[in-house]
Amino acid sequence: MAEVRQEPQRDVGATYGVAATDAAAERAVGAPESPENEREVGARSQLQLAARRFIRHRMALIGLAIFLLLTIGAFVIPLFWKWSYSAITPQYATGPSASHPFGTDTIGHDLFAQVLTATQTSLKTAFIVTVIATIVGTVIGAVAGYYGKLADAALMRFTDLVLTVPLLAVLLVLANTLSNANYFWIAIVVASVLWTYLARLVRGTFLSLREHDYVIAARAIGARDRRIIFRHMIPNAAGPIVVNATLTVANAILIESALSFLGLGIQPPEVSLGSLINSGQGAATTEWWLFAFPSAVLVLIILAVNFVGDGLRDALDPRQRRVRA
To answer: How many domains does the chain have?
Structure first.
């Protein structure tokens, strides 16, 4: 009889069932299935993760949309609007209508055109204040936190001195000496006192960062202090800096509006939201539109910026596990 060879039986369950189960388990726990997937997961930067968390923050997105709409409208609509902010129309102290959506004042100015130009002025002032205050505060805080000792003591005592002086009193004195100044000089005045909080914040962050391994390693290989500060440490402190810069926009607009409301900010023929509110407060009960529309735009800008700041704070915080809706 011919000998019958029997091939070893394959474990079908092990070949298909167990292997498929292991692959499914790997996918369930998030293990990369291939080198390509592993590189894709590894390439996901902190910026991408922060962007995803920010997009999931509903109020931040609403605030960003409102802020962008107001900004674009303030700079684009005046190019096509039929009235200039300084033009005098034949209608005096009229309420909102089709030709004048925000009404007119007692002189005949179109309030819609004036609110758009005032929003431009306030936003430009806030932008200049934010840039200057962020740069000055970051540099002073970085130098104080990185070098410590004498530099830290001198810079922080100067910062404490600026903080102890009443903010409004300093602004009133400086604004009074710069009478008839335009928005640029008002921005310089406001920025001269708004850098202090960021300086203390960056200093505290740098005191923690300078003890990290990558900073010690950079020093060990002979990297210059300037390179360590600007190439390694400031990017790792970008979260608090960006959030503070966002909130500085709101503070700058409020301070500029307060100065203009007191008559020490933007002077005619220029207009700002604060000056329009100051002009319309006397007629708030009779010609309500002169006070209501500039105030509403100011409140919308402040709320929108604060919502964006909250979203950035949650998105850039590495300890944030769940984004608030």
So the answer is: 1
